[in-house]
Design a protein that fits this description.
The protein has 105 residues and is mainly alpha-helical. It is 45% helix and 0% strand. It is built from six helices and no strands. Helix 3 runs parallel beside helix 4. The protein starts with a helix and ends with a helix.
């Protein structure tokens, strides 16, 4: 666990090489995406649907919304947080979210 967290702290793509069991571990994934939101892309699909995990990821890097499950790309709070962190995140939001005045402004 410590080795994975240390590796992620040094290079953003390190998590992709972590054992599958670690990429399925909610606690580890949560800590990893706090350091590197883009690491969400290497997390197990079930965790890419986890609202709390996705929220942590987009707080660190709004563009992590790209790797979130479709349902979370429709979540108003998650999309707002992602866009606040990085305006470019809007391109990864569900179409219906792109029509919301509050999201776009």
């Amino acid at each position: 666990r410590e080795i994975v967290l240390e590796a992620v702290g040094q290079t953003e793509h390190a998590f992709q090489y972590a054992h599958k069991a670690l990429r399925q571990d909610r606690k580890i994934v949560r800590e990893v995406v706090r350091q590197d939101g883009h690491a969400l892309q290497y997390a197990d699909n079930a965790l890419r649907q986890d609202r709390e995990i996705v929220l942590e990821a987009v707080r660190q890097d709004g563009r992590a919304l790209e790797f979130a499950a479709e349902a979370t790309q429709r979540d108003r709070e998650i999309v707002l947080e992602a866009v606040r962190q990085n305006g470019w995140a809007l391109m990864y939001a569900a179409e219906e979210m792109k029509q919301g005045r509050e999201i776009v402004l």
